[in-house]
Write a structure and sequence with these properties.
Radius of gyration: 34 Å
Shape: elongated
Order of helices and strands: EEEEEHHHEHHEHEHE
Strand order of the largest sheet: 4-3-2-1-5
Largest sheet: 5 strands, antiparallel
Structural class: alpha+beta
Number of helices: 7
Helix content: 25-40%
Strand content: 15-25%
Length: 188
């Protein structure tokens, strides 16, 4: 068979094809679609009549500058779509487990730990009110319920909030969700 550089060829007995890049006697080097260079004997190859010059079809850019300019074109940013279910999810979570608040509880009494947890909850709630964040979930855990009772008392002192158990499927029984009414000023 008469081969020349640039011919599209198929490899007999293998699922390979490519373009001839070099011919040295009966040894023919082809470049596969994946960019590998393989050597074959000329009797192992046959011309591919269906897809002549597939290599030229694969690459639509003739120069590297065209590729770079295509990549640098500003693309429209897609706005993330928010599902209705996610729209009502809390925008802020505060984990009040003591091991998230301090590195070590060594030397702390139960009262010290509870005070730290309540101070953290108050600071985070004030922050959410100031930043106009509408929903906050306070993760307190189940335990003996002391922290939950104290949180209920703390949240009850605010005029502009409503609080209730958070989503059971997501948090179980160990979290309270606080809804902050935005039209009431935090000083009321």
């Amino acid at each position: 068979m008469d081969f020349k550089v640039g011919d599209s060829v198929l490899v007999i007995d293998e699922d390979l094809s490519g373009v001839i890049t070099e011919i040295k006697g009966d040894s023919i080097t082809i470049e596969t679609k994946d960019g590998f260079f393989l050597d074959f004997n000329s009797v192992e190859l046959m011309k591919n009549k269906t897809t002549q010059n597939f290599k030229r079809e694969l690459f639509t850019y003739s120069t590297i500058n065209e590729v770079i300019s295509e990549k640098e074109k500003p693309s429209r940013r897609k706005q993330p779509t928010i599902k209705a279910k996610e729209r009502y999810q809390p925008t802020m979570e505060v984990d009040l487990h003591i091991h998230h608040l301090v590195n070590s509880t060594k030397g702390m009494t139960n009262h010290d730990m509870l005070t730290l947890q309540l101070d953290t909850a108050r600071r985070q709630l004030d922050f959410a009110i100031k930043k106009r964040i509408q929903k906050v979930v306070f993760i307190h855990g189940v335990g003996e319920g002391v922290l939950k009772i104290e949180l209920d008392y703390l949240f009850g002192r605010y005029n502009n909030v409503k609080f209730y158990d958070a989503n059971y499927q997501k948090y179980g029984l160990g979290a309270t969700e606080v809804y902050i009414y935005q039209n009431v000023s935090p000083n009321d």
